[in-house]
Amino acid sequence: MDDHKADYWARQIRIGATIAAVVTSIGAVRIMGWPGASRWWAVPVVLAVVAQAFLLRLPWNRLVRNAAFRRQLLIWWFAELPILLLFGFADPDGAYLYMPAAVLLLMSAAALWAPRVVVLFGVLSGLGYMVLLPVHAHVGAGLTFVVSAMFGCVTALIAINSQSRRRLDARREATEQRAETLLEASADTVLAIGRDGTLKYVSPSIRRLLGFAAADFQGQVIAKVMSVDRLAELHDFMNRMVDLPIGQSLRLESRLRNAAGDWVYVDIMGTNWLNKPEVQAIVVSLRDVGARRELEQQLSRQAFTDSLTGLPNRVKFREKLAEAVEGGGDRQVTVLLLDLDDFKLVNDNLGHSAGDELLTTIADRLRAQVRPADMLARLGGDEFVFLLRDLDPADASGLAERLLTVAREPIRLGSRDVTCSLSIGIASTIGDEINAEQLLGNADLAMYAAKRAGRNAYAVFDPTMTLSVLEEAQQRADIEHALEHDEFRVLYQPVVDMNTQELTAVEALVRWQHPRDGLLGPYHFIAGAEANGLIVPLGRWVLREACAQLARWRAETPAAAGLHVNVNLSARQFQYAGLVDDVAAALADAGLDAASLTLEITESMLMADIETAKDTLHALRRLGVRLAIDDFGTGYSSLSYLKQLPVDVIKIDKTFVDEVHIDEDDVALVDAVAGLGAALKMKTVAEGIETDEQWATLRRIGIDHGQGYLFGRPSEPEGILGMLSVTTVS
To answer: Keyword Transmembrane, does the record have it (predicted)?
Structure first.
């Protein structure tokens, strides 16, 4: 039995008890007019009145919920009939009082019981009346029949009304049950909250939402039974709900604690129906939005977090940077922009999985340097950025030093230890009214200044850097244009036998025929091409052009049959993963045998990463090309590795040749190199020979070949062809 039905039963029982008490009181008044010997009946009748009045105070709402107790209540009603009949015989006018009293009892019974009970009660009441009228009131049979028939009609009408009531009750209960089922099946939990905060209704679906039974909350004050995340916010929400016009709604998102003690995120929608008579409550629906919040957080993480490192991404960083710069007032904001040097080489040589592992390792090292109030983000690729607040410029430089140190620690990738470096740009808002984009741009300029300074370094932004970057950008555009429009030329410098002066090889040297500035030497563009990455396509073009030119010379004169061509490799070109393929393609396209080509590598290039250098040199040697160490003696510690490298030629740097004819120390050093070359079965070439004295001294020491202005300046292919013709004639 639900609360509504229990209230109804309790109300009807109290009405019936009141009617019974009133009728019994009338009977007590009537007894006082009886003969003296019979007046003692007034005592039990008065006691019955008192008992019936006492029945009004019983907790009928609770008692009637028991089905067995409800069945026993019928005894109360049927027990009234013999008492009423006895009173009808005892009282002189009892026949006239019986009928209205019986109708009252019949009507009160019809309010609770089924029609068949009402009919039975009416039949028994009517039989008593049919006995009472002729015996006590001396009414004739005809009148008794008429009155009994009328009483039967009243009974039938009351029974019909009882049936109609029960049908209406059944329909109401079905509607309520349907609504209850829908509410229970609904994802939402519905509450009806009275003006005083009492829960008048709680839908069963609250068990799914919070793990409590609806009965645990029914009739309780909401603030006492529901643990809300922000209680003050709930009170404010309820106060605003009370002040709303009828039918208006408010929405709130909060947290409720469930039966297990965990927080459940809920969307709260409240509608004010306090002034609607049928409801008189604030109707609140609670919807679990935990899954939605988790999805939103996941989407937020995906939108604002770098998937590889777990750091904030470019979008999140720009948002935080704008907040810091535009809303920070006088607070200083500093940005450190970090770029991994030559990260592309790791991807090209070791694969992208190794590159990802390198990035995550570097990210972990950088994360350890972040203060709680600061931010580290990955902008994409191999770029990271720090956002720092209230940091002294000296502290920023100290942080940059630490970052350079931790980045240089070796990283194990597969079976190899890899060392990487950073280029760091630092920019600050000190004394400047700049926006977030300008601040990040300044850090970017400083970072490229660090790269131009040799990498593995940091630079603090200076306004003059803007001009340098513009010049570099213009140079890059010019070099790209020159590559597309064949503005580069290759000149060739002779390499001769020191004893016979016979031309044995030529070194390919690139020049730029600039449309405005004329013929430019390598010092005007090689460093820029190296910095901006264009040195790789430029070096590839020089390699192919030199091989093709040697093939043309051999086709034009037999004197070029034994001629070799030397091509210099830049640092980036040497580190480029496709170098071996480029060399093989250049030889194949020119139709040259690999032994005709000598590739020159500087000592410093070898020492940068000796293990990788060894792998690359051995791969080139497998092609069959010859290898030379250029500028030998200007590097460091290469002698310990020299015997491990597949090198054919040692080229002695010009600095040791300039004074070899007058400086005994230079003589000793060159002599040592010549001896080393002979011991390792390597050819020796002295560079920068300009005088006969230098030539004579070097020839006496035992140097195999020479190169320099004494034998010929870099010249066009026709000049080399002329030298070959002279050699042939000789």
So the answer is: yes
